[in-house]
Amino acid sequence: MTKKAILQVADTGPLESLVVMLRSVGYECFLPDTHVRSELRGLGCDCVLDIENLVAGWGYAQPIDLPIADKTMMQTTDLYVDVKAHRNGPKIWSKWPNLEKRTLWYRINGGEPEHVVKRDAEGNVTEDHGDEICPPCPILTPNLWYSSPCKHGALVRNCYCCQNKSYSCYPPFYRFDDYFTKHGRAHLYDDPICLIHNLQGWGYGKLTERIRALGVRCHGRSSPDDLIPHSQVSRELYSALAMVHLKSSDAPGYALYEGLAAGCPLVVSRRLIWRNRMQELFIPEETCLVFDRETHEGLTDRDVDDCELAIGTALGRLRDPVLNERIGMAGRERLLSLMWDEKKQEDIQSLGQFMERMFG
What pTM does this model have? Predict the structure, then answer.
């Protein structure tokens, strides 16, 4: 029997991945209507976004069409999924207690799980950003920290790893065939490209003008070379010399997915690979070229110089079409081999068993 799931998820890539996965294990997926979203915001829930605004203002692709759920359905749905359920869950359950055992946290950000709490001088809590280690509900995530062995050494109540409450994977990319499969790959290259919104805010702001001087076009909302509509991205990646990814954290990031799907070679930071445990996907000199070092420290002036040199050297090397094709296609094939696949019975079975164990 088909179950129903309401998805409080607005970003096109993660939303479509989630739909593919949930449909494969028997869920019909719905989006919350404007009244539900308004109710959620009124409860103090954060990251309750409107898809229409992301499409119109941020250049996102319109996601696959899904039916809409109203407030009545919040009382009867089999599953409620929220991108910030570790924080929003208790607020939602105060209004809809029936959802307390039916809520799934769809964590789409990377990095080591933590519980960040800010206190004033008297020790009183002023901000609680949510417990990512012992969250109040199960987790479905592309964050590979949640697939790691428990580091506690003893059973910790509600810990995601101790209680086996998480399911992590490289999620399926619904639009994978819109890139290399459709366009192939150019042999005369245009400028390299960087596709990141708010480029200054991801740890490499000091490098922005340096890489632009190297010829890298930095596109995105609030990024130096402005937004390009998503409909143009596949054609841009078809001919770009490379994609330079100036992020220190991602999980794994749909811009990265797009570059890999296009067979466009990636230049990524060692910091990104190390912080996000993506060593299976990003293998230096095999599936990508790299810069920076493995550290949580801020960029020093020497780091900035070293990163600029490493990126410039990588871009120079990638002008060789043989190396360009080898790195780009190896990255594409590696992603294909690692992604969760609705055609693989073992993937469907493992997700189905997780959902059955968590939600019955």
Answer: 0.94
